[in-house]
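lol ok so funny story. i was supposed to be doing the assay writeup but got distracted and ended up predicting the structure for this chain instead. priorities right. anyway since i did it might as well share w the group, maybe its usefull for someone
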Amino acid sequence: MRHGLLSLLAVLMAAACHAAERTDRAAPIDREDPIDREALVRRHNIVLTEFHDDSPLAVGNGTFAFNFDVTGLQTFPSEEPGAVPLATMAEWAWHSFPGSEDVPYEAALREYTVHGRKVSYATDMKSDAAKSLRANPHKFNLGRIALRLTHKDGSAATRDDIKSPRQTLDLWTGEAVSEFEFDGEPVTVRTVAHPKMDAVAVLIESPLGAEGRVAIDVTFSYPTGEWGPWMDDWSKPERHKTEPLISDGSVNAHSVRELDGSRYGVFRTQRHVDGDVYGADPHSWRIGWRTEKNEVLIAVTEGSISGGGDSNYAANLQASADHWKNFWQRGAAIDLSQSTDPRWRELERRIVLSQYLTALHSAGSMPPQETGLVCNSWFGKHHLEMHWWHAAHFALWGRADLLERSIGWYEEILPAARRIAERQGYAGVRWPKMTDPEGVSSPSSVGELLIWQQPHPIWLVKLLYDADPTPETLQRYWPIVEATADFMADYAHYDAENDRYVLGPLLVAAQESYSGLKEGGVLNPTFELAYWRWALGVASEWRERMGLPKNEKWIEVAEKIAKPTVRNGEYAAIETAPYTIREDHPSMLAAFGMLPDVGLVDRQVMDRTLTGVLDDWDWQSTWGWDCPMAAMTAARLGRPEDAVALLLRDTPKNGYLPSGHCWQENRLPVYLPANGGLLYAAAMMAAGWEGADASQHAPGFPADGSWVVRYEGIRRAE
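and the output, tada:
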């Protein structure tokens, strides 16, 4: 017994050794001339020459985003299936319908017998209580900011009146320049977001401005509170309030918005004014002028209006340019431009655009929704099993501070997560799956039973420790590590007959194709078994670094966790029938791909498993992070050609739009976990991973000379 424990600890500590002892992790293998970061980024500037309703562009700063069409503003939104709403969003913008605060959570709970005792889960989805708990709170659109163009007869322009559009988003500065013709005259709209305020700045130039035929219309709606993506209900003007503009002079004005219990301010400042005119709708105002050029800044603030900003466009552009230049220069980079493989440009484009999009949508102070600050999905709720895919890559790309921003949220909801575990009779904390800012677990017959989000916080804080291996980092995140591991060790059930610890039933695997509520249930998903061992091993090492005594329960569960099931020479997804349904996420691959070798996986068996997945998996049903996940497995198995092919695999949910977003389906038109997964896989394939041959450059790419991979600043993966 003691020998086995020592052997296990040796494996675990080798897989997660002290970051301070790994001085090679941040060292670039490529020692050629420095990468020209500006040239790398700007060769992938986005250029649109027509309306792309499925791929609008955005500017933002991680907590605020402004999404716009080819006019540079939110002028012509489309409601066709697959179109992306044009919304102005901030991470603090949450709303609840009146009365929802009185709905008892207990009404959604159902009791189940789990290993001889009763455990409650919020699995009811049909009752009014469950529907309310899922839908509240929800994120909402702060306002539509549209360009108003009028013909000489006073009639408003339509989309068909926009001629010869050309829009360029400069990734190096964060500025979008939108040029087109209307009524035979040129119109130029320049758009940037302020890096530190929730504000969008606009510069509009056109001879039509001097005739008063160019203006900006700002309109406000009531939230739909729907699953997504549409957020605007224009049919209920009586349900919300927009105070009249209060002006402190000719150029500055502000208004306060009230939507039930939600309140926020909207601030407008402009260089030239021709009056703010209200239309028939009390929830709108028009910004007018009679000059060929005008500069406007519109800011939003949580609560009442406080402060504002400067309409000086040059100053806002400089602030944006400084912000993005710093972003691109201080992080890591991968340059593939010297490659002869014709796929290099598309892969490099996806890598560059994914960095921009995740910095814009996934780098806030709490985990993002899957659609980020673009539109709603699952009512705007966080999906914690996706947080790894949203944000883990930041640490590998030299931007651990962007990951750190959202980790503080776990500290805030520790009490809520502890209440979930206590209600269910477990130690420690149980992290919810679909949740709101307060950590309330949304009712779901699937999400409530997922467990693979549980180890994520240990992985994420370990990334932060690797980046800053200090006693202060250890101490700060110890409560998260300890409470997370306590639950994991307690959740695993001891199977005395086979002298092992099992996971489930009751659970739903990462591959959600198996009902966790059916008789027999789901037992021992391959990926989750390996993840349990890895996380408990890291937690044990964390204790050791802090000088604390060993937790024998953690060690025992990690050592005796059940072995993954092998059928027909391949790893099954779960231990119980039907074993492997060949659709959705091929999650068993993550046990040796996303995860390092934890002593549970046989390489040859995993190699056959990957081959089987490539041969006959229903790739139409996979999701955006599945290709990067499988690419990581291929890389670890020494199959670099498969790794590259997987990143670029031609399958519906792995197609990257001109904006860089990854469409999944009409109700989920963008999907940030795909972008984050791509970045993690690309970093791993370039800089390697623990256990990779240190003498081999870019071990995840083919070594036949067709790929020339230059990189800087990337940390090796686990």
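The longest strand covers residues 293-302. The two ends are 28 Å apart (CA to CA).
back to the writeup now i swear
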